[in-house]
Amino acid sequence: MFTATYSKSRDLFTPIRDVPMDVICAGFHSVETMSETRALSNRPNGTPNYQLIYIKECKSPITYTIGEQEYAAQTDDIIIYRPHEKQRYFYTMKNKAVVYWIHFDGAEVENLMKRLCLHDVRLLHLTDTSISVPKAIKRIMNELHASHLFSHDIICGELYSLLAKLAQFKYLTSNNFSKIDEIIDDIKTNFSNNLSNQDYAYKCGLSLPHFLRCFKQVTGTSPLNYKLNLRVNHAKNLITKTELSVNQISQIVGFNDPAYFSRYFKKLTGLSPKEYREKFSVKMEEMGDA
User: Fold this and answer.
1) Within 10 Å of residue 73's Cβ, how many Cβ atoms?
2) Reduced to 3 states, what is the DSSP secondary structure of residue 223?
3) pTM for the structure as a whole
4) How many structural domains does the chain have?
5) Which domain holds residue 134?
6) Distance from C-alpha of 150 to C-alpha of 235, rounded to nearest angstrom
7) Are residues 37 and 134 in the same domain?
8) For the chain, percent helix, then strand, then coil, each to nearest 5?
């Protein structure tokens, strides 16, 4: 295991109240070889300061215990420990992790974290590539090491800029997800329409690539697949509970091409619409007779 760290001449376990903000220490861990699991942190009472951890790379999830809650963090995840929260986390050789971290405190830090709405954040998945946490922490590390006349000001500026960018990302992401929820409700209500992904992106006020990324984060699939699955689920209900023809059902649920509807239906269910009706309509009749 290779570790690089630069620290200030402040004790990690002594609260900072003489300045509004300061960085106690910052560094990174790069796990290359390790013969056994090792706990890099096991602090039942935490520390009296905030700790921000950024997972730049990892091949398998890393478990972080914050208080009594466990979080499985992966690449591009940010973990934030509040003061005096139980800290426990492990890195193993299979993680192959590259992790950056920073401890910070100050008389105004608590108010700052509340104002930025980061006070209660525990895990944040960072998808904005314009925010480079490693570069910010490396610049802080350099100033900690150099200790020039204005290093403290530069360090606080870098830290504030990083926290503000994360707060903005969290705010925009939260707004985007609420917009995605509205689109999901719209699709559920109007799954038979043929609005395009571009139409939905326009409704959200997002670019098409960003809309598709956000939609997949929320649902695990694309808008098209989500809509088609809803159509098939509704078709199942019509097939087993009505005597409508397959052509009629395909039109009702939004498939203009009955042949494509049949192929997609079989792809999801393993049965053609006709086979599905024969199999499950009979079962319903039997249940009714019983």
Assistant:
1) 23
2) helix
3) 0.65
4) 2
5) 2-171
6) 68
7) yes
8) 50, 20, 30
